[in-house]
Amino acid sequence: MNRNGNVFYEDRLCGIIEETETGYRFSYDVDYINDSNSKAISKTLPLSKSAYTSNTMFPFFDGLIPEGWLLDIAEKHWKINERDRMGLLLTCCNDCIGAVSVKPIIIE
């Protein structure tokens, strides 16, 4: 099951993160890329029209996931395995401290 999340920078849609069969893909939104005022979400993910791919969760996104006791609470409350990085990202990063947040895309 592939899962996806809309990525927001300062409450503005800037891209999408996707779980694929081989890992993960992040791509910036076309409208976001074409706006001269847009900023990269991370130095490791500079603005690009090409998608970024990785076999493991991108370190920037992995860094948004809670750690320590907060991660323990998330795992117990939502019953998410700590190795399910996409599940944790989509569940715990809707309202992060900082400029970037990730909201799950619900396909009905």
**How many DSSP-defined strands?**
5
Which whole number gives the mean pLDDT?
Answer: 90
Apparent shape = globular
Low-confidence stretches: none
Order of helices and strands: EEEHEHHHE
Strand order of the largest sheet: 4-3-2-1-5
Largest sheet: 5 strands, antiparallel
Measured as a percent range, the helix fraction is: 25-40%
User: Into which percentage range does the β-strand content fall?
Assistant: 25-35%
Q: What is the rounded Rg?
A: 14 Å
- The SS-based structural class is alpha+beta
Please state the oligomeric state of the protein chains shown.
single chain
N-end to C-end Cα span: 14 Å
Tally of contiguous helical segments: 4
Task: Give a short synopsis of this structure.
This protein has 108 residues and is of the alpha+beta class. It contains four helices and five strands.
